[in-house]
Structure formats: structure tokens, C-alpha cells
Design brief:
With 446 residues, the protein is an alpha+beta fold. Strands 3, 5, 8, 10, 11, 12, 13, 14, 15, 19 and 20 form an 11-stranded antiparallel beta sheet that branches. Strand 13 and strand 14 form a beta hairpin. The two termini are 72 Å apart.
Length: 446
């Protein structure tokens, strides 16, 4: 039992036990190990600061193509379609005939009005003849009046001579130079001339009355003439009105364009557009050599859009082609209450007809107003499975906190941060690791 080998083994075990106990009882053994492990597992990261930057704002919105002008052509008269002269896809010039409508009852009305005008023209001619006749009567009456006045002057002269002779004869008789018989003869002659003067005076008055009557007849004939002319003019205006209605029987293109729809067949009964049940239009005409691009801009960006702002347009139908560049031609200036968007329009020449009304695409409007925005590199932003964005914020003692953010403008390289972090805060740049709230990191000096 006291074999030297056994004693040596016991001694060695004793030493080892002391060593183990000594190591286990040392007060600095566990903290030292923990500090070493902790130092080994601290992740080194690079950070970027949230930087306020003046940026050119853009807004990406859906865009749709519309004809520059689009007209639904309807009939303004009721009748049967007599002839079609245009069909879908046909290009027509302004004023070209597209269809004719048969309205025989109006043609009959026109013939009746034309006959009435001919009768009224004859009435005018008869009234003119009445004027001519009355004018001739005036001239005749005036001639008779002149003749009567001439006779009156002659009668007055004769009466004056007879009166003078009577006075001289009466003086001679009183002196006894002549007999009374001579005075009687002269008196008789004087009285005869007086009677003739009175008769001629009556003729003058009668002639004057005839002149007045003839002049009244002239005035009456002229009034008849004016009435006949007015009646003729009224009837002619009725004919003009009917001709306007008859012109509606020909459907014409109001502008140059393409027939994009046709809803009528030869022989169809069409009704005046104002009538109930007039239905669809006869044709739809669209001008597409120039088109309008309409873009609904949301309320947040609407105040920043100005006429002349640059627009970049892309269409799924032309993925292999370069984007189309245009400018804002006009803005509505008000929001649609139902969508809270403002309509913006751009005009684009379309000589080849490549852009068709109804096409949809995307429009990026480069707003002329620059704004200061908190920007971060796109690589520094993470996303949850639900799609919500967040960043890892590193505070001054190098502790990580997770901050959900709201994103704004995205130019492909940088993203605007609307909320969640403030300017000057630092966040972890691109990194493969995931971090937790309160986790310590080691920030590398940039």
C-alpha cells in the first residue's frame, strides 16, 4: 500500500486538486473570460448620416393617351340613312361628307315655299304697277290743276278789264256823255266775267283735290309695295331656315381625323339628337395626328406642378424604344373631389399615329420646385416581410435601435425619409447581419 508509485500518484493528484481549487476560487476568473468573449463578438459596422439635401422632386404617375379632339357626330334631323360615305379607320378631311339622310317631306316643304315666293314676287310687281299708275294720276291731276290755274288767271284778267270798262262807262253815263243802255251792256259783260272766274276757281279747287287724291293713291300703293316686299322677305327667310335644316341631312366632319367608331347602317332611321331615344352617335371622329397625354397628379404633388415642367413618358407597348420627352402644356388648377387628383395635360405630335387613344403608360414629371429632403442611400434601408421599411440607428454609445421609417421620393440611388429619423442621425450602412434593439456595435471610422 505504501508503494512508491502509489505515493507519487497521490501527490500528483493532490497538486492538481490544489490547482483546480485555486483556479476555481479565483475572484477574477469569470469576468475575465466574459469580457474576452464579448470583445470577440461585437460587430463592426459602417454608418451613414441622414443628410438634408436639396433635391429635384419628381412624381411618377399613370398616364393615358387621348385624342387631341374627339367628337360624337349625331343627327340634327330625323330621317332614313340614304348613303354612307365613310367607315371605321378612314381618314377624312374637315368638311368631308360622311353620310346623307333622306328627308323627302322637307323637300316638298321647300317647293311649297318657293312657289309662295314666286306669288309674292308677283304681288310686288302688281304693287309696283299700282305705284306707277298712281304716280301717273298725280301727274295728270297736277297738269289739270295747272291748266285750271291758267284759266283762272285769264278769267281774273278779263274780269279786271270788264270792271275797268264798267267804271269808265258809269262815269260817262253820269256826265251824260253816254246813254244808260251802254252802261247796262258793260255791266252785263262784267258780271259774265265774274261768273267765269268763279267757275274757273271751282275748277282749280277740284284739280287740287284730284292731285291730293292721286298723291294718297301713290302713298297707298307704296305701302302695298312695302308690305309685299316684307312678306316676300319673311318667306325667303323661312326658305333659308329650311335650307339650314336640310343641310343637317348631310353629316360632315367638323375637323380632320380618323373615324374611330360607326354606329349606323344604310336605311337606318335616325332621330334628331334632342329627341328622346336618339341613342348612340352615328360616328365618332378623333384627331390623332396630335394627342393629349393626361396625368392625374395626387394632392401632395399638385401644387408643385407648373406649366413647362419636363415629363418623361414610357409605354408598355414600346418597351424597346427610348422614353418620350414632353412638357406640361396645361394643368386644370383644381382637384377632382372623387380622386383628390389634379389633371395635367401634355401635347405630343403623333404624325405616324403610333400613340393610340386609350393607351396607358407611366409619366415622371420633373417638378420645377426644388425642396430640402432628408436623404439616405437606398442600401441603408431594410424592409420587413410585410414591406414596411426600417433602419438601424446607432447612437453615441454605439448602441443599435430599430427605427421604422416612411419613405418619399426614390431616385434609384437615394431615398427620401419623411419620418422616423432626423437629420444628422447615423444609421448602419449596407450590412449582411441583422441587429436587435440595444445591441452593441463597433463603428468603423469612415
Amino acid at each position: 500500500m505504501n508503494h512508491p508509485f502509489h505515493r507519487g500518484c497521490l501527490a500528483w493528484l493532490g497538486v492538481m486538486g490544489v490547482l483546480v481549487v485555486t483556479a476555481g476560487c479565483s475572484p477574477d476568473s469569470k469576468p475575465g473570460v466574459a469580457k474576452k468573449d464579448e470583445t470577440l463578438h461585437v460587430t463592426r459596422v459602417k454608418t451613414v448620416a441622414v443628410a438634408p439635401t436639396e433635391v429635384q422632386r419628381t412624381t411618377l404617375q399613370p398616364a393615358s393617351v387621348h385624342a387631341y379632339f374627339r367628337a360624337e357626330l349625331r343627327a340634327n334631323i330625323s330621317g332614313f340613312v340614304k348613303e354612307l360615305k365613310a367607315d371605321i379607320g378612314v381618314y377624312v378631311e374637315a368638311g368631308a361628307e360622311l353620310a346623307t339622310i333622306d328627308v323627302p317631306e322637307m323637300q316638298m316643304q321647300r317647293e311649297v315655299i318657293e312657289a309662295r315666293i314666286r306669288r309674292l314676287v308677283a304681288e310686288e310687281q302688281r304693287a309696283q304697277a299700282g305705284i306707277d299708275l298712281a304716280t301717273a294720276r298725280v301727274r295728270s291731276s297736277e297738269a289739270q290743276l295747272a291748266e285750271a290755274k291758267s284759266k283762272l288767271s285769264s278769267a281774273e284778267a278779263s274780269l279786271a278789264a270788264s270792271s275797268a270798262e264798267f267804271n269808265r262807262t258809269e262815269d260817262l253815263v253820269q256826265r251824260g256823255s253816254l246813254q244808260n243802255r251802254m252802261l247796262d251792256e258793260v255791266r252785263l259783260k262784267r258780271d259774265s266775267e265774274q261768273a267765269r272766274k268763279e267757275a274757273v276757281t271751282s275748277s282749280v279747287q277740284s284739280a287740287e283735290a284730284e292731285v291730293a287724291v292721286a298723291q294718297s293713291q301713290v302713298a297707298s300703293a307704296k305701302a302695298d309695295m312695302e308690305a309685299a316686299r316684307a312678306e316676300t322677305e319673311i318667306t325667303r327667310r323661312q326658305l333659308d331656315e329650311l335650307d339650314v335644316l336640310l343641310s343637317y341631312a348631310v353629316i360632315r366632319a367638323p375637323f380632320s381625323g380618323v373615324i374611330t367608331d360607326r354606329f349606323v347602317q344604310p336605311g337606318d332611321l335616325v332621330r334628331e339628337a334632342s329627341e328622346v331615344g336618339s341613342g348612340k352617335p352615328l360616328f365618332v371622329l378623333s384627331q390623332i395626328d396630335k394627342v393629349r397625354i393626361r396625368i392625374p397628379v395626387p394632392e401632395t404633388d399638385a401644387p408643385l406642378v407648373n406649366q413647362g415642367d419636363e415629363i418623361t413618358l414610357t409605354f408598355p407597348s414600346f418597351t424597346a424604344e427610348s422614353p418620350i420627352t414632353a412638357t406640361v402644356t396645361r394643368r386644370s388648377g383644381s382637384l377632382d373631389p372623387s380622386t383628390r387628383t389634379m389633371m395635367v395635360e401634355a401635347e405630343i405630335d403623333n404624325p405616324e399615329g403610333k400613340l393610340l387613344p386609350g393607351m396607358f403608360g407611366q409619366a415622371s414629371i420633373h417638378l420645377s420646385t426644388k425642396a430640402a429632403a432628408n436623404m439616405l442611400p437606398a442600401r441603408a434601408i431594410r424592409f420587413e416581410e410585410s414591406g414596411n421599411a426600417y433602419v438601424y440607428v446607432v447612437d453615441q454609445d454605439e448602441t443599435v435601435s430599430i427605427a421604422p421609417i416612411t419613405m418619399g421620393m426614390d431616385d434609384g440611388n437615394s431615398i427620401e425619409v419623411l419620418s422616423g429619423v432626423e437629420a444628422g442621425q447615423r444609421v448602419i450602412d449596407a450590412h449582411l447581419s441583422r441587429f436587435t434593439d440595444g445591441q452593441k456595435v463597433s463603428v468603423l471610422v469612415n
